[in-house]
């Protein structure tokens, strides 16, 4: 196994687990390590996330069904602030988006379903500020996984003060592949035929 490239992927290897097999842990390591190696939006925040729990649990209210739960922690740093010394609401939404997506990816892999999904809806409710330097904990649980849509819920806590900062729900879906459309012209049928032949 390659050396982890971030706190995020490294913590996957050490996080306490419940119901997560070594193969599932390895899969989640590879996903988070690949994401953390990218140079894209918010990577300085995501690379410093630490996974503190990773579980697959039987749902009490729905016997026979499984939910995944993942807990992440980090510190509020300057790059996460708004114009006051509080965590920006956009950063909170970004963390909920990412952490709930990774939590869904764990359950999707357990269920042997594709993990490549796109966001459909993200709802956030803000309850209290998180000051610079605060240790925040993001607790995520899956809610439903269907044929094309799935959802998760998240709570963001100021762990130093035992205070709920924000809560959110995240719905995702399997994205559609764009179809090639040809302009109508006298040779359209012939062109479409050539296109299909080229794909074979």
From TrEMBL:
Region annotation (Disordered) ranges: 161-200
Biased composition (Polar residues): 168-179
Transmembrane segments: none
Domain Thioesterase: 86-162
An example Gene Ontology molecular-function term: fatty acyl-CoA hydrolase activity
SUPFAM superfamilies: Thioesterase/thiol ester dehydrase-isomerase
Family, as annotated: Belongs to the thioesterase PaaI family.
NCBIfam families the record matches: unchar_dom_1 (TIGR00369)
PANTHER family in UniProt: ACYL-COENZYME A THIOESTERASE 13 (PTHR21660:SF1), THIOESTERASE SUPERFAMILY MEMBER-RELATED (PTHR21660)
Name used for this protein in its record: HotDog domain-containing protein
Organism (species): Cristinia sonorae
Organism placement in taxonomy: Eukaryota, Fungi, Dikarya, Basidiomycota, Agaricomycotina
